[in-house]
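Hello,

I think I submitted the fe (ii) ion job twice by accident. Can you confirm which output corresponds to this input? Input:
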Amino acid sequence: MTMPMTTTKGCEMRVSGLLHYGLQVPDLSRAGQFYEDFGLTLSERGSALAVRCAGQELDRTLLTEGPDKRLHHVAFAVSPGGLPGMQRQMEGLGVRLEDTPPAGPEGGLWLRDPDGNLVTVQEQSPLPAVPAAAPPMNVPGDHRRIDVARWVDADAPTRPRRLGHVLVFCSDVPRSERFYSRVLGLGVSDRVPGVVTFMNCGPGDHHVFGLVQSTHAGLHHSSWEVASVDEMVLGARNLADRGSRLGWGLGRHTFGSNFFHYIRDPWGSWVEYFLDMDQITENWTPRDWHDVPSAVWCPVRPDEFTHNLEPVQ
Ligand SMILES: [Fe+2]
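Support: Only one job matched these inputs. Its output is below.
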């Protein structure tokens, strides 16, 4: 079955990108150390910790402390001046807007998805990714690295350049898909009906957001773009050396086609390094897929990959 790229009839406005996610954790300093070991930078935001990509003036994760690990919110961007129109669209759909929650960023719209997850839309100018000087790779018939020994600098520190996407668990994928399509204007990129839906914000990454079927809400994974396969493998090895015992990678995904390497954070959410994500335009044809594995090639996938360890809200 094929569908138009944007499936939402009557949706006038759509968010322009994924900004960040908020995560409640039982131990703020342990979480901060994990994200630093992953290759990101930290700064204090009152009682919260903000996680950023080095060289980028944008909070990409907001860590707050609480009794258990759980997704706190997901933040999307709308272009400057677009917030009133987005609010009218939400109110026209009967969406109830909420006050900014404690530790949530001010100035945007706050609402809840069908599982009760907090979602915010904030005005934000488009922010380019931190550029990476991709090392040239010699391939058959196209040798671009001449008289340069790659191994000499192949062990540079892993530095994620941007947050690419977030996938969340939900109790009813079709219901949540309708919500994110109608209210935020996200488009469907590909789906395995009733199992997972990948969603886009228009031209760009194949997916910036996704929904994974579960019994209840939770964060499945966040994904961060790096510049090379070396960075992915060395970053995962560094985390394993520091005690992160469960990972999955290196592999190449089916949906999105990206290289991936996952590591589990101290409370069971997956954090992914990615590279070489499919870029799509209005010419992309979304499809429903059946019996397709999640990777073209990979090591054996851990059984725990789709376990939702967050408590029921
Ligand atoms: Fe991913």
